[in-house]
Amino acid sequence: MDGILPLWKQKGMTSHDCVFKLRKIFGMKKVGHTGTLDPNVEGVLPICLGQATKVAEYITDAGKEYIATVSIGTSTETEDGEGAIVLSDNSYKKITRKEILQALEQLTGKIVQIPPMYSAVKVKGKRLYEYARKGIEVERPKRLVHIYEIELLDDQELFEGEQVNFKIRIACGKGTYIRTLSVQIGEQLGFPAHMASLVRTVSGNFRQQDCLTLEEVEKQKKEGTLEQYIRPLEEALAEFEFVETDDELYGKIMNGQVLQQHPSLMERDEIVFTKSEKVIAIYRNHPTKKGLMKPEKMFPFNR
Fold this sequence. Notes:
Elements: E1 3-9, H1 15-26, E2 31-33, E3 42-49, H2 56-61, E4 64-72, E5 74-76, E6 85-88, E7 93-96, H3 97-106, E8 109-113, E9 122-123, E10 126-127, H4 128-133, E11 143-152, E12 158-161, E13 164-172, H5 178-189, E14 193-203, E15 206-207, H6 214-223, E16 242-244, H7 247-254, E17 259-260, E18 270-275, E19 278-285, E20 292-298
Parallel strand pairs: 3-14, 16-18
Antiparallel strand pairs: 1-3, 2-3, 4-13, 4-14, 5-6, 7-12, 8-11, 9-10, 11-13, 14-15, 17-20, 18-19, 19-20
């Protein structure tokens, strides 16, 4: 079976837990997820099956959308509600809608983030959370991320109390830490903050309404109706330009040949070749031979 299963990952499970269970349900080893979701986060987790595991990186790198609850008043070690409290401000706060909207506007666009210590980012060959668990503080690399849109979902004009919570919807590019964004929103407002909850509603072309839970996957498998929920791997590559091949070009591509550069590659990094509208290969500009292109991924059995 080749394709993408839009899975709704429930709280309490790791992404790897989901893959392990799905391998048993499908009776196949070639199953992979498309970017880790923390155990305390639920949401859209596209699962790649068979040949579709070759396109997992493209889904991982695609845009995401989240619904998050920002909590103003305390910051934590992990930047979410799971970690020990680092700083508290118990003053009675009155934050206006205008102030929150101004903070969100300041953090929209390309912004710099420093990944949290409790994250999977690697520094000197180790994950940051490995250092954090040993109490070792290391310098973390700054990264530029793209926040396309932040929408305030609560409609009141005044947010008040010792602890102030509000929900936001975030559309963002790859590598964005919503935990860190919540802390940055607090900084803009002048208070310690953390992310109290998070749900991923979109990953690439896959949305919440497309998804099945693990229980629903098992049920559909038993009933023999699961295949209708498996999406073709072409959907993971929808942002690329597709070029249909003739028989001559098809033969050359299936042999993995280095070819004359396609005109479209003068404006983009990669191009998708199809036969009968099914993906057969992804080509990119040759790194050392100007005017030529080489295969990046091959899909010889995609039917």
